[in-house]
Amino acid sequence: MSSETDATDTSLPAPKIQLSPQEWRARLDPAEYAVLREAGTERPFTGEYTDTTAEGVYSCRACGAELFRSTEKFESHCGWPSFFDPAASDAVLLREDSSLGMRRVEVLCANCHSHLGHVFEGEGYPTPTDKRYCINSISLRLQPATGTAD
């Protein structure tokens, strides 16, 4: 992986939001930058959304794009928030990740190409897609659902 998640990958469409590393560093705190822009991973069972059951929309912490909804979040007991599907088919991009000596599929925000986590298939979870989008809490921001007046 390069230090900037989209710096040299020409297989992906261009991100809608393009900032220099210095601009990203000004926008994100060091821990957010390490995960979102340098494809880091937060420690398991430490993220703020790992056990959250609140209803709402999970947006990209870097750019604010809607990524996942609480209706697709499920308890996988893996240490990170897990979703069985993104909010929209074009909300995320997937690319092969062969770092750490294994083959995985990286999940990126389609809007800004920030690293979110990885997606795994065929693990047997009782979800409609049999996929687990294993996402770093620090990559997300939960916008709680608002009630409507009757």
Q: Give the C-alpha Rg.
A: 15 Å
Number of helices: 2
Q: How are strands sequenced across the largest beta sheet?
A: 3-4-8-7-6-5
Strand proportion, as a percent range, falls in 25-35%
Strand and helix order: HHEEEEEEEEE
The chain-level mean pLDDT equals 91
What is the CA-CA span between the terminal residues?
Answer: 50 Å
Can you put this structure into words, describing what you see?
The mean pLDDT is 91. The protein is 9% helix and 28% strand. The protein is mainly beta and 150 residues long. The protein has helices at residues 21-27, 30-36; strands spanning 56-60, 66-69, 73-74, 82-83, 92-97, 104-109, 115-121, 131-135, 140-144. It is globular. It starts with 20 loop residues before the first helix and ends in a 6-residue tail after the last strand. The protein contains 2 helices and 9 strands. Strands 3-4-8-7-6-5 form a 6-stranded antiparallel beta sheet, with no helix packed on it. The protein has a 3-stranded antiparallel beta sheet with strand order 2-1-9, with no helix packed on it.
In brief:
The protein is mainly beta.
